[in-house]
Design goal:
Blueprint (H helix, E strand, L loop, with lengths): L2 E6 L8 H10 L3 E7 L3 H4 L8 E5 L4 H13 L4 E4 L5 H7 L8 E5 L4 H5 L1 H7 L2 E6 L5 H7 L4 E3 L20 E6 L9 H10 L4 E8 L5 H10 L6 E4 L5 H10 L2 E2 L8 H8 L4 H9 L3 E4 L12 E4 L2 H8 L13 H13 L1
Parallel strand pairs: 1-2, 1-4, 2-3, 4-5, 5-6, 6-7, 8-9, 8-11, 9-10, 12-13
Helix pairs in contact: 1-14, 4-6, 8-13
């Protein structure tokens, strides 16, 4: 049985681990999982598990050395990095490894190949790169000659559910994740909420006490529209998150056309909201500029301006959405890079 290690050294991108674990275990691999300790709560709730798992503080350089020693001593043939960018990954990749050990991994931001010297150092040891969407491949090939493969990580564990009440006639528009202005245009959401019908509930599916959550809530309160939002003041459990996702009508990426954010997500990286839309087969309301992106294979309905957004968000019931990816096709694309 071929030995692989799946590694996430950072406290993010854990949403991509589940699909990879399924692909690897369904393909007969012996899998060792190393994750930053911050990922333990979510990863241990998966309904598919690695053969062995370790959750360590990956800020510690000593733990990076421990991982390296484990890989060498156990003759792991292939190392899969869930994120091949960032300072921790650079330190890890600069350690000495046997020449026969193969490294592949997921690149979450293609722009790093253009702007980051550290990224170029990391990629010297990378034999194959995974991208999370076909539409990114053309830009990747402008910056790198490393073999690449695209796979969909749009799979979620079979979580249980919590009871959440959706009143008759309500429309739920979900913004997943903590409130971060660098990732989403929340001022656009506030402006749209002022004009939206009372039947529309905007659900901010993350801990609103973190980051810029208090700032957003203060703005909503000052505008007299706080009651239009459903918020949470602590970590949202997987079961509760799943329940809202199952019952929601829309997902809102809140990426406005003409912004640097839109440029990033049209050319260099994938929003987690795109992946959730596909995983749950829920349509996104997205700025019409994204209609220009070739191979943009997600459930989506486009709007042209705030007025159109407000008009559309209240009438989601009849929207058509894209089909889900076929698991076997995604598995084959993923495994093909390991075997190349």
């Amino acid at each position: 049985m071929k030995k692989v290690a799946l590694i996430e050294l950072n406290p993010y991108h854990g949403e991509c681990l589940y699909a990879q674990l399924r692909f690897l275990k369904c393909s007969g691999y012996d899998v060792t999982l190393f994750c930053d300790k911050s990922q333990e709560r979510s990863v241990t709730s998966f309904d598919v598990v690695a053969d062995r798992s370790f959750f360590w503080d990956m800020k510690s350089f000593g733990n990076l050395i421990k991982i390296r020693n484990f890989l060498v001593e156990n003759r792991v043939e292939t190392v899969i990095l869930n994120t091949i960018q960032g300072g921790r990954v650079l330190k890890f990749m600069l350690l000495p490894f046997p020449s026969q050990m193969t490294f592949v991994g997921t690149l979450h931001n293609i722009r790093k190949l253009k702007d980051s010297f550290g990224q170029k150092l990391i990629c010297r040891k990378i034999k194959g790169v995974y991208l999370l969407a076909e539409y990114l491949k053309k830009n990747f090939e402008k910056f790198s000659k490393i073999p690449c493969s695209c796979y969909s990580s749009a799979y979620v564990p079979a979580y249980g559910s919590e009871y959440v009440e959706k009143k008759e006639g309500e429309v739920w528009a979900v913004v997943p994740g903590s409130i971060e202005y660098k990732r989403r245009d929340y001022d656009f959401l506030l402006d749209a909420a002022k004009s939206s019908d009372d039947c529309v509930k905007f659900i901010l599916l993350g801990n609103s006490k973190k980051g810029e959550g208090p700032l957003f809530l203060k703005k909503a309160e000052d505008d007299g529209i706080l009651e239009k939002f459903v918020t949470f003041d602590s970590f949202v459990s997987n079961e509760l998150f799943h329940s809202y996702m199952e019952k929601c009508d829309w997902l809102l990426p809140l990426i406005r056309g003409g912004s640097s954010l839109a440029d990033d997500y049209m050319n260099y990286k994938v929003s987690g909201t795109f992946i959730l839309a596909k995983a749950y087969n829920k349509p996104m309301l997205l700025d019409v500029v994204f209609s220009r992106v070739e191979n943009f294979d997600y459930p989506v309905v486009y709007y042209s301006d705030e007025e159109k957004f407000v008009e559309m968000v209240k009438q989601s019931a009849k929207r058509e959405v894209c089909d889900l990816s076929l698991f076997e096709s995604d598995r084959e694309k993923y495994i093909s890079l390991l075997n190349s």
